[in-house]
Amino acid sequence: SSDLVILFCGIVQADAATIKQTMDGAMDLSIEYPDSVIVGRDFTVSIFIQNNGWEDKQDISFFIQPQSESIVAKNQTLLVNRLSKDGSFGGILEFSTINQSEIGTHYLNAVYSQVLLSNNETPQPVFQKNIALPISLKDAPEVRLNTITPTSIFPNAEFQFDVEIISKDVPIKDVLVQIIAPSDVSLRGQTSYTYSLIEKEIGRAHV
């Protein structure tokens, strides 16, 4: 017997959360991170800081400490010696989750600190701010692939079949479905299908 093979691939779409705060001396901090991560996957936290005050700041640091053993830091610190008026800097901190992670909400403890230079000369006491970043760890999403195909096919006959994809948990993007025929079957027409996005609980069917 000959079997058709259907290949499916897609990327799980994660929603990003953003926290914006203004620190001492009009230092604006923006943190962007995923609000959910699938266990066993890597993720990043993006940091952007801009000095919108008229005085310089020095010894600026941003540090993230995971509060759970389920999250491991690859690099967790950003440092800059000095930032003048209208100056800015940013970076990306990298983390990973272990395969045996506990499902649920976990927290990253972010610590921002700086020293304001009064009149751009005199160091003031260290300013420090703690920020909690909640991240939900989830199991791998369940994606169901339904097919309806003929039970038998006559030589030189035309036939059709349906393919339906349903993501039960999360949206998936850049979806590709490809139909591969055995060597003794020739397919006419379209054999691959792409969708930019399949929403949660909404199926896409191909005929």
State the end-to-end distance. 23 Å
The largest sheet is: 6 strands, mixed
β-strand percent reads over 45%
Structural class comes to mainly beta
**Could you report the average pLDDT, rounded to the nearest whole number?**
83
The number of helical runs is 0
Overview of the molecule:
The model has no long low-confidence stretch (mean pLDDT 83). Strands 4, 6, 8, 10, 11 and 12 form a 6-stranded mixed sheet that branches. The protein has a 5-stranded antiparallel sheet with strand order 2-3-5-9-7, with no helix packed on it. The chain has a 3-stranded antiparallel sheet with strand order 1-15-16, with no helix packed on it. With 207 residues, it is mainly beta. The chain has strands at 5-12, 16-23, 27-34, 36-38, 42-51, 57-66, 71-75, 77-83, 88-97, 104-118, 122-123, 127-138, 143-148, 162-167, 172-180, 192-198, 204-206.
